[in-house]
């Protein structure tokens, strides 16, 4: 009899077909994350789970199911801040993610937001759509010229390096970065700085590319933002709660910084009214990996981890 697998949101058809060819798949076709209560039921009812963004696998969820039927969580996505991996391990449950598959697409969205924020693209489009464009003139809507400026990358992992590559080769930007361990080779000429405030004060555009975790929650708070210049921009493509949204709103309203570009939010899909009404912020609905081939590669990677587990092999992407 084939293993029973829960997939918590609809994945591309080819991924579902690959999973269904081997497993007895239950697809939860819903846009919202599961609740903690639903996860407790699922841990007892399925042999494996393929979780998606935000499904709250907290320590309490694992503790509530002392003898789970499920022994593998193959997360769809590189970020696993919604899964307490040490509590899962203690409960005898293996966890994997999808590194690599998301890198280029997420870096592309970072560059999209850098350009949109620097060149005031969404503000301009809103002006035009509202019929408030009354003619071109030489000093209209002047933004930040990215070429030759300094990008400061917070978190020089795979995605940080892919952003550095694009910024250096595409725009001739100087790259500075912060990383908790020394980085021998950033892939392009780059300077590792010693403190967050140094990166914030040196860069014309700061990009957040660290994983979300309790350790990085509110890393970018009022104090960090106060080190930025009034001509600078902040971009977040990582996790929403790395940036203290209320402090960012203050910084954007007061002119402490010139602009921001966000793909992620503290309480997705909620976006504060204050952010939605500000002109100097570009807001995307967590589009980081939103391309069919990317979501397919992520899904196939998660499914391969399930195959390995049920074949009795090591998980290729075990956390
Ligand atoms: C995914 C992401 O779309 O991979 C990640 O960590 O943030 C996204 O790009 C999402 O996590 C899917 O679960």
Automatic annotation (TrEMBL):
> Which UniProt keyword terms apply here?
NAD, Oxidoreductase
Q: Which Pfam families match?
A: 2-Hacid_dh, 2-Hacid_dh_C
The entry lists its GO molecular-function terms as: oxidoreductase activity
Q: Does the keyword Iron-sulfur apply?
A: no
Its EC number is 1.1.1.-
Enzyme class of the recorded protein, top EC level: oxidoreductase
Q: Which CDD domains match?
A: GDH (cd05301)
D-isomer specific 2-hydroxyacid dehydrogenase catalytic domain span:
5-318
Q: Keyword Oxidoreductase, does the record have it? A: yes
Q: Which residues form the D-isomer specific 2-hydroxyacid dehydrogenase NAD-binding domain?
A: 111-288
Ranges that cross the membrane: none
Q: Which family does it belong to?
A: Belongs to the D-isomer specific 2-hydroxyacid dehydrogenase family.
What is the name attached to this protein's record? 2-hydroxyacid dehydrogenase
**Source organism:** Pseudohalocynthiibacter aestuariivivens
């Amino acid at each position: 009899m084939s293993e029973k697998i829960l997939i918590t949101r609809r994945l591309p058809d080819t991924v579902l077909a690959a999973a269904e060819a081997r497993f007895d798949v239950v697809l939860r076709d819903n846009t919202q994350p599961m609740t903690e209560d639903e996860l407790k039921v699922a841990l007892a009812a399925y042999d494996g789970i393929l979780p998606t963004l935000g499904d709250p696998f907290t320590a309490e969820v694992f503790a509530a199911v002392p003898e789970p039927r499920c022994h593998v969580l193959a997360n769809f996505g590189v970020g696993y801040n919604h899964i307490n991996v040490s509590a899962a391990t203690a409960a005898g449950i293996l966890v994997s993610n999808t590194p690599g598959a998301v890198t280029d697409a997420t870096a592309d969205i970072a560059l999209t937001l850098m350009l949109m924020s620097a060149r005031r693209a969404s503000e301009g489009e809103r002006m035009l759509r509202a019929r408030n464009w009354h003619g071109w003139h030489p000093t209209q809507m002047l933004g930040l010229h990215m070429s030759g400026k300094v990008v400061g990358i917070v978190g020089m992992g795979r995605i940080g390096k892919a952003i550095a590559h694009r910024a250096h080769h595409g725009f001739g930007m100087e790259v500075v970065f912060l990383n908790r361990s020394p980085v021998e080779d950033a892939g392009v000429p780059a300077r590792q700085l010693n403190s967050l405030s140094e990166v914030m004060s040196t860069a014309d555009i700061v990009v957040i590319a660290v994983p979300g975790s309790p350790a990085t929650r509110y890393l970018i708070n009022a104090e960090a933002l106060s080190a930025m210049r009034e001509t600078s921009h902040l971009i977040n493509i990582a996790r929403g709660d790395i940036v203290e949204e209320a402090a960012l709103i203050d910084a954007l309203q007061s002119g402490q910084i010139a602009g921001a570009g966000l793909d992620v939010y503290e309480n997705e899909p909620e976006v504060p009214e204050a952010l939605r009404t500000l002109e100097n912020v570009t807001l995307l609905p967590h589009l980081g990996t939103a391309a069919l081939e990317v979501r397919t590669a992520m899904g196939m990677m998660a499914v391969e981890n399930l195959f390995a587990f049920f074949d009795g092999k090591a998980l290729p992407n075990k956390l």
